[in-house]
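User: I'm writing a tutorial on reading structure tokens. Could you give me a worked example: one chain, its sequence, then its tokens, then a sentence or two explaining what the tokens reveal?
Assistant: Sure. Here is the example chain.
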Amino acid sequence: MTLKYLLRGIEDTNTLGRCLSESVRPGDILLLSGDLGAGKTCLTKAIASGLGIEEREVTSPSFTIIHEHLNGRLPLIHVDLYRLGRHADITEIGLEEYINGENLVVIEWADYLDGPLLEQGLRIDLRLIDEKVREACITGRADIWKERLLELDGCMGKK
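And here are its predicted structure tokens:
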């Protein structure tokens, strides 16, 4: 199942993040991809805010690769694979220990991954339309994500 939204500025990105935060559960994996500057970290900040985590605490973990934010409704594990490049090995960075059914794991540059995470996660591709407008294409397996994608779409329609 796939949803598409035009995000016309930071407020629309914040709305998408808040709506996503309402539908995620422990153990979920959000797989963010898109060009540099497409808004992956901004979306992660908005998700964190919706979980009750201070947005200012969320920065791009490009150099540390993994940041833990444990003080929200769900523990948020924020991962950035940019420095690792194509075919990132999650065992080398210890990501497997966070995929334990308790955390929400948000992975930036998820298109660098191979393997089963791509099957179970919710893919969010952000594409630059122009300097202010992004397109968000959200795709998840129907057997895992259909109900929550319908909730997300309802939330986005209200805001």
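What the tokens reveal: The domain at 2-158 is CATH 3.40.50.300 (Rossmann fold). The longest helix spans residues 142-158.
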